[in-house]
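Lecture 7 notes: from sequence to structure.
We start with the chain below.
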Amino acid sequence: MFDFEADKISQMVDTYIIPWGINIVFALLIYIIGKMVVGVLIGVFGKVMARSKYDDMLIDFIKAILRAILMLFVIVASLDRLGVDTTSLVAILGAAGLAIGLSLQGSLQNFAAGVMLLVFRPFKAGDFIEAGGAVGVVKSISIFTTVMTTGDNKEIIVPNGSIYGGNITNYSAKETRRVDMVVGIGYDSDLKKAKAILNEMVAADDRILKDPAPTVAVAELADSSVNFVVRPWVASGDFWPVKFDFTEAVKLRFDEEGISIPFPQMDVHVHKDD
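Predicted structure tokens for the same chain:
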């Protein structure tokens, strides 16, 4: 009887315990070694991306996604070694991924746009831009949204899909900008004197660059005025101060010199019938 029990136990050990033990050991080895290999690969990928000067947030996010995908393969390989039917598991994961993708279609669009913005960097934090129907200074760029601050200190959160899907105007991309102004004088005013005054004012402002040279020219003989275009080049940070200061200075100087700045007028002629 004891021999029968011993044979039965020996048979169970040979049939189940040893094969399953070996499979468990190999599955653990696959998981441990696979995890180590994934860690090494992620580390190398992070160093390569860091040398390429990509955004740290983008690097961390891609590393997290890559780590999850690689670890999924490691887990599937470990389960396959244990004899688990991984075909059904992969099919279930695929179906779940498809369902999640369809339900989060808008979010995935913003995610893809965020990745493209972080890779190609059409703007960075601190730039003054116009994009996605908003104008302001970029405060931060995340995977799904971009946060901007307006001139009156309002915070705007814009989906990245709206930004990347339209035109992006980056006013801070260049070190210099051209200030485009139009100054009108009356037809009875001295044209040459007005032009000389404008050139003198442009030359006297230290914020206006000498190269490229500013432009002062007669641009249009309008209905009620002769219009000059005044186009000086300035550092990007001086754009609005120069525009505001110059506009005020032109009005004050023209008043001193007796040069009229016309405004729209309408003459009404009344005909009286007997």
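Points to note: Strands lie at 128-131, 134-141, 145-149, 155-159, 169-170, 176-178, 181-185, 215-221, 226-231, 233-235. The chain has a mean pLDDT of 83.
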